[in-house]
Amino acid sequence: MALVAELGISILLIIGGVFALVGAVGLARLPDFYTRLHGPTKATTVGVGSIALASFLYFYGTNTSYDLLELLIMIFLFLTAPISANFLAKAAMHLKVKTTDNTRGQPWDQ
Amino acid sequence: MIAIALNITIALIALAVVLNVYRLVRGPDAPDRVLALDTLYINAIALILLLDIQLGTRLYLEAALLIAVMGFIGTVTLAKYLKRGSVIE
Q1: Hey, is the C-beta of B47 within 8 angstroms of any chain A C-beta?
Q2: How many other C-beta atoms can be found within 10 angstroms of the C-beta atom of residue A102?
Q3: Dihedral over alpha carbons B14, B74, B24, A42 (to 10 degrees)
Q4: In angstroms, how far is CA A65 from the centroid of its own chain?
Q5: Helical spans, DSSP H, in A30-110
Q6: Cβ–Cβ contacts within 10 Å for residue B47, how many?
Q7: What is the pLDDT of residue B86?
Q8: Closest C-alpha among A58, A44, A69, A33 to residue B34
Q9: For residue A107, is the peptide bond before it cis, meaning its omega torsion is within 30 degrees of 0?
Q10: Helix %, strand %, coil % for chain B, to 5?
Q11: pLDDT in tens, A19-43
């Protein structure tokens, strides 16, 4: 494989790992559920999408396979992440999960 | 170069999995645990993709796709159970 392709795939892999870690740190450290929802649903989705793209480019570059399974996984994750986040936020609002003290108003009042 | 990046990425994802398990055990509310499980299945997909690159095979990609579909269904089902008290009304 060409050097440029290897460099691109390596950068995509590292970006994916860093984004997944940032999402997990957000999940572990942010103060309440409504803020914690941000980390995994945005950062982790982008991270896994980046890793899937790197995998697709790797197998395309090594002439192993030409099918689009990774892109399918990527598109599916991008479609489903906001939906599951919306469902979880609605469930948390229904259960009246506690917010941090800095929150103005309550989410379930609106 | 790819081999080094691959090892670094696997280490980062493994650390992310540890942090997710921390949130899964710690709670404190049910939606937090469901969110941790949601993140865990997404990280499992990432680990399977990395394993495929490591081994140079495409054997496990169908498993990744199945985890993506079933994980989404599981998250939606758990969220609906928390909101309505039953899954199918």
Answers
A1: no
A2: 8
A3: 60
A4: 26
A5: 33-36, 38, 45-61, 69-95
A6: 20
A7: 82
A8: A33
A9: no
A10: 85, 0, 15
A11: 999 999 999 998 888 888 988 888 8
Residue found by looking up tokens 């599951």 in the block:
A84
pLDDT tens readout for residues B8-30:
999 999 999 999 999 999 878 88
- For chain A positions 24-83, those within 8 Å of chain B (CB to CB) are 24-25, 27-28, 33, 36-37, 40, 44-45, 47-48, 51-52, 54-55, 58-59, 62, 64-65, 69-70, 72-73, 76-77, 80-81, 83
d(CA A76, CA A82): 11
Tokens coding A77: 């994750």
Domain boundaries, chain A: 3-109
